[in-house]
Amino acid sequence: MLSHIDKKLLLVIAILMLFGVVMIYSATSIMCAKRADIADSTFYLKKELIRVGIALAGLLAASQIDYKLYKRFAPLILGGAALMLVALTIPRFAAGSIKGANRWLDFGGASVQPSEFAKLAIIIFLAEYLSKKGPILDNFKKGFLPAAVVVIAIIGFVALQPNYGMAIAMSVVAVVMFFVAGVKIRHMAYVALPAIPLMTLAIMHSKHAHQRIVTFLYGGDPLGDAFQINQSLIAIGTGGILGKGIGHGVQKLFYLPEIHTDFIFAVIGEELGLLGTTVVLVLFLLFAWRGIKIAMRAPDNFGQYLAIGITSMVFIYAMLNLGVVLRMIPTTGIPLPFISYGGSALVITMISCGILLNISSHVQTPIEERIAILEDEPPMEGFDADFYGWRRNRRTSDTRAEHRTGIVSPSSGR
Q: Can you give the pTM of this predicted structure?
């Protein structure tokens, strides 16, 4: 199976992962050495390497499991995610409040973040639902609304932690999947119109979230609420074109809080400069490109929606993180995929990528060629042809898709 996966995508994932390990060590080595309770410059590096090992095992296992199995177990996966979110309200299982948020479950000393599992569960659920209900998605009550209610319920539990950044990011991914499936924009607007004011009220009633909005809009105290974002901009601004060199950054010397998690991109900007940040951005663009190609050449609708959901999840979360570090959007608390220090986020991201790689091992003849043969039209070329064919056939049943792919001998499509 591994011989048939998208090797270009795997290479991008490997580079991002390696990049993350190097930058985490650079960001934390001095901090660990100076802390009396640690006094080991490799403390975070060792923990990250263990997590990388677990994440790689997850990616390898997921890449070997036929992605079609997730369609059968989609309701169970979503139900498990919902139970984990509900368990956060039970003190016996919750790991306790950290910085005013109750987001972690305690499993024998190991903390797990249910919202990370929930973001993948929603994608699997939507992929199964949209592939099954494709012909009636135009019907608001019978097609779109049931799925929207389920998604809103899960996202609502995430928002109650509170974790508004994650809730918004999950909503954007869901909207992308609905749009790709052909759901009418006005139907999504019917749901968004009441949901957006409710989310806004919730944010306004959260002192922490409200302060982040105010700081973003009006600045704030340079030595208080605005300290973190100001130090982030200083780090990126002083990096210049080529940066100060790995290990030579200054902001990591206890100036910038959370430097190895949500603000790791600031370390990249300071130590590797514009060149390093551009490389990171290009890598995520390459990830999105390969993911979209896999989605458009998947052999069935479930594979298409699953691939586009995973691809959009990684790319959207990355862009939100970059937007925060560059002060383009308010602070969200979303880590940078593959690169930020973390356990649950890294493992779930790698498992998701394993699923995407498995889908890539099943890709068929490029869809524009199949359409041309079926309709006796001159084949189009390039991305426009791919997108045209994909959107035109987005609501065909899996059975019909399999019938079409049987007309032409499968090829790698890469």
A: 0.86
